[in-house]
Specification:
- It is found in: Cytoplasm.
- Belongs to the LipB family.
- One of its GO terms (molecular function) is lipoyl(octanoyl) transferase activity.
- Catalyzes the transfer of endogenously produced octanoic acid from octanoyl-acyl-carrier-protein onto the lipoyl domains of lipoate-dependent enzymes. Lipoyl-ACP can also act as a substrate although octanoyl-ACP is likely to be the physiological substrate.
- By secondary structure, this protein is of the alpha+beta class.
- The chain has one domain: Bira Bifunctional Protein, Domain 2 (BirA Bifunctional Protein, domain 2).
- Helices cover 24% and strands 30% of the residues.
- The protein has four helices and twelve strands, in the order E-H-E-E-H-E-E-E-H-E-E-E-H-E-E-E.
- Helix 2 links the parallel strand 3 and strand 4.
- Helix 3 crosses helix 4.
- The protein is globular and about 50 Å long.
């Protein structure tokens, strides 16, 4: 283990179950503060209400059902400022949004993306799930299919968006889209791989891997920020 006294400080913010638009707005506020020098590096953990988001390289053509079906299921489709195509977010999925100033890490977005993948790969290894990268594709994969999506954005080297790891979501929502624009590869969850575990437990495991890979310390104290809890 490296000398943690030399690690950078990062805040951890648990948002709980939150509509996507609200979490996105909060990301934008934190990123603006980080760019101005008044904010800190922060990792957000959140679950979303069911939603489809489409990145800058995406298309609504990858939605396989009609608008009527979407309305019946109560599903929003939101175009966002991250890379990638369409993905699903919903309960049972751990979503992480690092707001990091990469000038304090490494100014390389491709490297940053692979480091996020590495965090998830190491996390899954703790549950004896063998996962890996696929050449030419983003995210984290298993022999049964894609288990985690990566989609990032950055402005002035301050990152937004991040990753989503399927722990035990309702996987039927993925059937209504071509996840990440891919038509011939399945999506899988930890539960479908035989791992029954809570989001809280996986979150703690992932937090430890994130701290090691990005060489950060998370503050021990808890700070109240209105409806959110920082700790």
């Amino acid at each position: 283990m490296k000398n943690k006294t030399r690690y950078k400080t990062c805040q951890l913010l648990h948002l709980g179950l939150l509509p996507y638009q609200e979490a996105w707005q909060f990301q934008q506020e934190l990123a603006a503060k980080r760019r101005s020098g008044t904010g800190q590096d922060t990792l957000l953990f959140v679950e979303h209400l069911p939603v489809y988001t489409i990145g800058r390289g995406g298309s609504r053509n990858n939605i396989k059902v009609s608008d009527k079906v979407l309305r019946k299921r109560g599903l929003e489709v939101i175009e966002v400022d991250r890379g990638g195509d369409i993905t699903y977010h919903g309960p049972g999925q751990l979503v992480g949004y690092p707001i990091l100033d990469l000038r304090g890490y490494r100014q390389d977005l491709h490297y940053y993306s692979t480091q996020l993948e590495e965090v998830i790969i190491r996390t899954l290894a703790k549950y004896r799930i063998n996962s890996f990268r696929e050449p030419g594709l983003t995210g984290v994969w298993t022999e049964r299919g894609k288990i985690a999506a990566i989609g990032i954005g950055a402005r002035s080297w301050v990152t937004m968006h991040g990753f989503s790891l399927n722990i035990n979501p309702d996987m039927s929502y993925f059937d209504m889209i071509n996840p990440c624009g891919i038509t011939d590869r399945p999506v899988v969850s930890m539960r479908e791989l035989g791992i029954e575990v809570s989001l809280a437990e996986v979150g703690m495991t992932l937090l430890n891997q994130f701290a090691d890979i990005f060489e950060v310390n998370f503050a021990d104290e808890v700070v109240s920020t209105g409806r959110y809890t920082l700790g």
